[in-house]
Amino acid sequence: MKICCIGAGYVGGPTMAMIAKQCPDIQVTVVDLNQTRIDAWNSDDLPVYEPGLDEVVQEARGRNLTFSTKVDEAIAAADMIFISVNTPTKTFGMGAGRAANLEFIEKCARQIARVSSGHKIVVEKSTLPVRTAEAVKRILSSSGNGATFDVLSNPEFLAEGTAVEDLLKPDRVLIGGESQEAIDKLCDVYAKWIPRDRILTTNLWSSELSKLTANAFLAQRVSSINAISALCEATGADVDEVARAIGTDSRIGPKFLKASVGFGGSCFQKDILNLVYLCEHFGLREVAAYWEQVVSMNDYQKQRFTERIVKTMFNTVSDKKIAIWGYAFKKDTNDTRESAAIYICRDLIRERARVVIHDPRVSEGQIRATLTEACTDMQGNISDLDKRLIAENVSVAKDCYEASKGAHAVAVMTEWDAFKELDFTQIYDSMQQPAFVFDGRNLLDRCQLEKIGFEIHAIGKS
Ligand code: UDX
Ligand code: UDX
Ligand code: ADP
């Protein structure tokens, strides 16, 4: 059996590496239009940082795992084709800012239709609006060269930073489809390492909708606890204590209740906005408004954090140096998509602060590019002032010590473990006084820092 995966990104790369590792008898080819990305997958410096991924790729690459830019060739040879391309939020036209841009999915479907012969199983791996498979099926069936197709939906639930662990021991694998034979073929692939009772099968539409729903529920939990964090700050309750108290109720559960500076990542906001757009499309205005509030709450949390910094620092951060610890949207990843740090840094430099950023995995180029994007409007315009602020008021440091030297404040944006084990006395001595810490992840030991002399402000703690 031969598998081809179109799209060598955060989802396609690791998922296919795991399939290849677990199924030595299956030839897996991952293709992408982006030559640089493919070259990186073929090098020792993979384009995606995930703990344990290097070993998985090394084991299978060259044996039954290939990364290539020969898209047509790989599609033509495959029995099963995964579509794992990006589905960003549309930035133009109808549904701009909400609907998913399905351009890349549609192009893949047309490409598959064009180069295929015989029978193939096409698997939607990318997160898609419900009923996308309908469009995919129609495009495929118009191929005109006699090829036949079954379409399956097999959304990926891995989280970044724990991708290898999640792929190895998923809570469940979800496969939606119409043809039992096609479903069974894909089940057999996963069953090589995942217990059968963890492989759920549903109809196509339930599978497509479950992915959006899972992400919406997860994001909603974060927004819910973040909403409570604001109330904690106002009342003297402690959000970590509240989270522990409610999390022991088995109906609520303890996971995903960590108050933070706001959720980020490529999925949550995009998928909720997509869900909102879908609800509106089906005339369900109240349902759309309900889910949209999860994103509004997240925006509020980020904005609230910046405001707290400014207010606490005597209502001005102008010309003050603020050390930003962490820029990735969470620990153990180099991904910065929708990271709260982007928006907080943007708002701080617009207050004329000087930010000095350190993240162990994020490059200076990526930091500047994301800030530039955050200052650019839908029409692609960026003001001269924002350009100047990004050039002059943003710098990047090699570690937290360098970032904090001479700083008026430290703001923790990402919960990197290494940030907990620093010499805080040295940091304190190198900073301006009073030395403020704004802990956006409730990561640092408050008592220890206060003893040293820091003034610490954490999420959901007064
Ligand atoms: C609730 C809390 O569960 C309990 O911890 C608290 O002390 C008091 O309030 P109660 O109102 O007795 O308890 O009933 P509960 O079982 O929570 O159900 C509340 C309502 O939600 C019911 O109308 C129930 O039918 C409904 N419900 C519950 C659903 O519609 N779906 C569900 O999945 C669960
Ligand atoms: C998410 C889903 O977890 C995953 O199942 C899906 O396949 C893709 O989207 P990911 O975006 O990689 O995964 O990361 P996740 O761990 O879910 O965190 C998302 C954001 O929420 C991060 O910014 C994280 O810091 C934040 N978060 C998460 C909190 O602020 N508090 C929490 O308790 C949990
Ligand atoms: P995800 O997080 O969903 O994996 P990424 O943006 O990381 O998304 O990866 C998607 C990949 O799909 C990108 O590397 C992009 O170049 C690739 N891609 C998009 N369209 C096509 C296409 N028609 N053929 C091949 N690769 C594609």
TrEMBL record:
Instruction: Give the molecular function GO annotations.
Output: NAD binding; UDP-glucose 6-dehydrogenase activity
GO biological process entries: UDP-glucuronate biosynthetic process
Q: Which domain of life is it from?
A: Bacteria
- The encoding gene: tuaD
Report which reactions are catalysed by this protein.
UDP-alpha-D-glucose + 2 NAD(+) + H2O = UDP-alpha-D-glucuronate + 2 NADH + 3 H(+)
Q: Where does NAD(+) bind?
A: 7-12, 32, 37, 85-89, 126-127, 160, 267-270, 337
- Give the record's pathway: Nucleotide-sugar biosynthesis; UDP-alpha-D-glucuronate biosynthesis; UDP-alpha-D-glucuronate from UDP-alpha-D-glucose: step 1/1
Catalytic residues of the enzyme: C267 (nucleophile)
Q: Which UniProt keywords apply?
A: NAD, Oxidoreductase
Q: Which InterPro entries match?
A: 6-PGluconate_DH-like_C_sf, NAD(P)-bd_dom_sf, UDP-Glc/GDP-Man, UDP-Glc/GDP-Man_DH_C, UDP-Glc/GDP-Man_DH_C_sf, UDP-Glc/GDP-Man_DH_dimer, UDP-Glc/GDP-Man_DH_N, UDPglc_DH_euk
Q: Explain the purpose of this protein.
A: Catalyzes the conversion of UDP-glucose into UDP-glucuronate, one of the precursors of teichuronic acid.
Q: Can you name this protein?
A: UDP-glucose 6-dehydrogenase
* EC number(s) reported in the record: 1.1.1.22
Similarity field? Belongs to the UDP-glucose/GDP-mannose dehydrogenase family.
